[in-house]
Design a protein that fits this description.
21 helices; mainly alpha; single chain; Growth Hormone, Chain: A
């Protein structure tokens, strides 16, 4: 009887932790849907609103490793719970934000809470479960991660349409309070492995500064795509970030109690897992930033209609998570990851083939199903495989590193795919607009407007009321749509290449059975 009660408490604990993770990841994507409403509410522009997104992304990535280490040292439950409380308070403040600056600051604070939950979630679940139940629990957590990221347009669209933009923040409050109560009661604390260790303040500062510089440099390039990589505004940040991370590694090799045990990177299996995390971000998650505008701006679906159709991708996470947890205890996780990534590559190629001026959901869904299958399989497997071969005192840091590389992959993917799309889009415009019978002044003005607006907004210019009245409207609109299609095809093919590369890398680096390294659990200065 007591054993059954203990198992029930375990699953309630998993539900509480999953709820926190769901909110933290949802807030990475849900704000996109609310931006048009925020533009009107704050009487500002999309450019000014960009930091509502960037503040969360930047602070989230920078604090992941720090929160992981603090959890390993002082107890993962304490840091997870404190992060959740901070996230809930920041969400309430963001919903009441009187100005854009206040919202930007609130988003940064909210990101610290989100990073604490995400960085410790896998390690906390792993320490609360054992045996086959651990694989199942990590599989369920992985499915929650997958569906939270993909369901942003649906949940955000519904909340904004019915309750306004502030609802995307207020909704976190009641669910967050429920999660706090459940975690206090049901989640078991982990040992404080760093009771006798010193905080590696230098390592924390160097890792945060290095990640900040790299991600900020990528954000600058994303917001100003025509800026050269060699420009000081971009290369200055990127080079500084790389130098800081090199110094970070050198420091970690020489301090008594390092923030990160650099020897983790000597294990091919762990390198393979980091590669999968990066590919998942650069491929699947980054592609979401391009699929949503395709369905909304070019096909013409509303935010809710887009979200419903994207269930073709996200629903697989809900279905496959528990199944993967069971299968992973019987079959090779390595080959399940490899095959799933190859299937995702085929899905992106199917979407590339389907792209045309008259494309609709009927044409896209076969590829979306395969992508959803990959997401639903790889996310849970990444969690379970990522905890293999890791000693208990390093589980928090291993979890944090996976999330850092997943987030870094997403940022790199969004920027890289955007540059590829822009290049193909502009090349097609330059080669075909001149063939339209229209005044030279009008052509030059519209071309500059299209290039400045970018592929996402080109449809709005081409099909505006003023342009639609012009005698050359139909030919002009056809060129713009075809230019966008060329860019999207390039995005899909590139993403397919990224995912297939991840499959090949997994085949070469991952091991079928991983034993934990023989490292003492005692603090080094004992």
């Amino acid at each position: 009887m007591q054993q059954n009660e203990s198992k029930v408490r375990q699953w309630i604990a998993l539900a509480a932790m999953s709820l926190g993770v769901f909110m933290g990841l949802l807030d990475v994507t849900v704000v996109n849907v609310a931006l048009p409403t925020m533009v009107r509410s704050f009487k500002t522009t999309f450019t000014n609103l960009q930091w509502v997104l960037n503040a969360y992304t930047l602070v989230y990535a920078v604090t992941l490793l720090i929160m992981s280490k603090l959890g390993d040292m002082y107890g993962r439950k304490k840091i997870f719970l404190g992060s959740l409380i901070l996230f809930v308070i920041a969400s309430a403040v963001n919903g009441m934000a009187p100005s854009l600056l206040a919202l930007d600051i609130g988003r940064g604070i909210q990101a610290i809470g989100g990073a604490g939950m995400m960085s410790l979630s896998m390690a906390l679940v792993a320490s609360n479960f054992s045996g086959r139940n651990r694989g199942l629990a990590l599989g369920i957590l992985g499915s929650i991660m997958g569906i939270s990221t993909a369901s942003g347009p649906l949940i955000g669209g519904y909340l904004v349409d019915h309750f306004g933009w502030s609802a995307i923040f207020y909704v976190n409050v009641p669910f967050g309070i429920l999660a706090v109560i459940m975690i206090i009661i049901f989640v078991k604390e982990t040992p404080s492995y760093g009771k006798n260790q010193r905080i590696d303040l230098g390592g924390m500062l160097l890792s945060a500064a290095g990640l900040f510089a790299i991600i900020y440099g990528l954000i600058v390039k994303e917001s100003r795509p025509h800026l050269s990589w060699a420009s000081i505004q971009v290369s200055g940040w990127l080079v500084s970030g790389v130098i800081l991370l090199i110094v970070f590694v050198i420091v970690e090799l020489h301090v008594a109690d390092p923030m990160v045990d650099v020897s983790m990177f000597k294990r091919p299996h762990f390198i393979g897992i980091i590669l999968v995390a990066f590919v998942l971000g650069a491929g699947l998650y980054a592609f979401n930033a391009y699929l949503t505008p395709l369905m909304q701006n070019y096909i013409g679906y509303s935010a809710i209609q887009t979200g419903v159709r994207q269930l073709t991708i996200s629903a697989w996470s809900l279905i496959l998570g528990p199944i993967v947890g069971i299968l992973s205890s019987r079959y090779s996780k390595k080959w399940m990851i490899v095959i799933s990534l190859f299937i995702g590559g085929v899905g992106f190629l199917l979407i590339a083939r389907a792209i045309s001026p008259g494309v609709s959901f009927v044409d896209l869904w076969p590829g979306m199903v395969l992508i959803g299958f990959t997401n639903g399989m790889v996310n849970p497997l990444l969690n379970t495989t990522g905890m293999e071969g890791v000693i208990p005192s390093e589980m928090g840091m291993a979890s944090g590193l996976l999330n850092v590389f997943r987030q870094l992959g997403t940022t790199v993917g969004v920027v890289g795919l955007g540059l590829i799309q822009n290049s193909q889009y502009e090349t097609y415009l330059n080669g075909h607009l001149g063939r339209i019978n229209m005044p030279v002044a009008a052509m030059n003005g519209l071309k500059q407007a299209l290039i400045k607006a970018g592929p996402f907004s080109g449809h709005g210019i081409a099909f505006s009321h003023r342009v639609s009245q012009a005698p050359f409207a139909q030919a002009f609109q056809h060129v713009v749509v075809r230019a966008y299609d060329k860019g999207m095809v390039a995005v899909c093919v590139t993403t397919a290449g990224i995912v297939i590369f991840g499959g090949i890398g997994s085949m070469l680096l991952l091991h079928n059975h991983v034993a934990a390294p023989e490292i003492s659990e005692r603090p080094k200065n004992q």
